[in-house]
Design goal:
globular, 8 strands, Lysozyme-like
Length: 192
């Protein structure tokens, strides 16, 4: 996994985050934007120091660094003090995420979970009154930490159990979002 460093110019310095306990996932709510465009919007329209997110994942799977990783973010209101914010290019109320973007997001989340010993990955809507990151956001596929053998077994069972019911979104027995099961299995198979 490669993280592309950017040459973003911020208004001033940052407050250093004292602890890192959670990751919060966002979408840009736009069809297409570069990290520089998000940065300039946050800086010029919102009056912020610059981009509020620590990372930005494009649809092509490229990951860009936003604000410094150790800085307090500007992405989740009162929850910025102990979180890392990751934004995904796209409006996932209206579109679905490309596989390359899902795989890149999963790799980034798992790298950060390991680096900071994080167990909680949340959607923006879990901490603020919003629908973000959208109803089509593949949260399970991105946030999951893989135990390869267990994951394959569980997902194959979920898919088999629901083969005759493609409209089912959630399997109560396995607590897996069926919409994400195929994507997760593809990612697991890619990485094994």
């Amino acid at each position: 996994m490669q993280i592309i460093n950017t040459d973003l110019r911020f208004r001033h310095g940052f407050t250093t985050r004292k602890s890192t306990k959670r990751i919060i996932l966002h979408h840009s709510a736009t069809e297409k934007n570069s990290v520089e465009e998000i940065h300039n919007f946050h800086k010029n329209n919102n009056g912020w120091n610059g981009i509020g997110y620590h990372f930005y994942v494009r649809k092509d799977g490229k990951i860009y660094r936003g604000r410094p990783e150790n800085a307090v973010g500007a992405h989740a209101g009162n929850h910025n003090h102990d979180t890392i914010g990751i934004c995904f290019e796209g409006n996932f109320e209206l579109e679905t995420m490309p596989k390359k973007q899902i795989i890149a997001g999963n790799e980034l989340v798992n790298m950060l979970k390991k680096k900071y010993n994080i167990s909680k990955v949340l959607a923006h809507k879990d901490v603020n009154a919003t629908a973000y990151p959208g109803k089509n956001f593949p949260f399970g596929a991105i946030a999951m930490t893989f135990n390869i053998a267990e994951t394959k077994e569980i997902l194959r069972k979920v898919l088999a159990d629901n083969a005759n019911n493609p409209d089912l979104d959630y399997n109560r027995d396995s607590k897996v979002d069926v919409r994400d099961a195929k994507l997760i299995l593809d990612i697991v198979d890619k990485n094994t």
